[in-house]
Design brief:
single chain, 149 residues, mainly beta, Jelly Rolls, 5-stranded antiparallel β-sheet, 3-stranded antiparallel β-sheet, 10 strands, 40% strand
């Protein structure tokens, strides 16, 4: 499944997707170190996270200008809100080092629930917020692959 708005879709952004999927299938993701690892040139790098989910409204929407986010749930489950509406307003300065900027809540967004083994690919400039609990706080181990182009 690929969820995108046709006006904002650029096939070139997705060139490294197969390489990222191969990484997910061939790597023991229960043992990747927390934080950034597995840099594959400009193709992608791995960011491993370990946390308890919280109410999604505790988080702000964010966007990225340089890389796509592939969120893969290794353990647990979480809610992610994502929008293809790129008509957002910044509520923070863009952080070049982290490739992140916080934006206002979009008028329209979708709620996606990810369970163990599920992933979602979020395009550049697509507002999203993560780490949301479903029914109660749950432990999550997640790998976010940051795909370059």
């Amino acid at each position: 499944m690929l969820f995108a708005n046709l006006d904002n879709f650029n096939k070139k952004d997705y060139e490294h997707l197969q390489e990222a999927i191969n990484f997910l299938k061939t790597t023991d993701l229960t043992k990747t170190p927390l934080g950034r690892s597995h840099q594959k040139g400009e193709s992608f790098f791995c960011q491993t996270l370990d946390y308890k989910t919280e109410p999604i409204t505790d988080f702000k929407f964010e966007i990225h200008n340089k890389r796509l986010d592939l969120h893969y749930i290794v353990e647990g489950e979480e809610r992610i809100d994502v929008s293809s509406d790129t008509n957002y307003y910044p509520i923070s300065e863009y952080n070049e080092d982290r490739d992140i900027q916080y934006v206002n809540e979009p008028r329209r967004f979708n709620q996606v629930v990810l369970h163990q083994g599920d992933f979602i690919l979020i395009g550049m400039h697509e507002p999203h917020r993560t780490n949301g609990l479903i029914d109660k706080p749950t432990h999550v181990r997640k790998v976010v692959l940051k795909l370059g182009f």
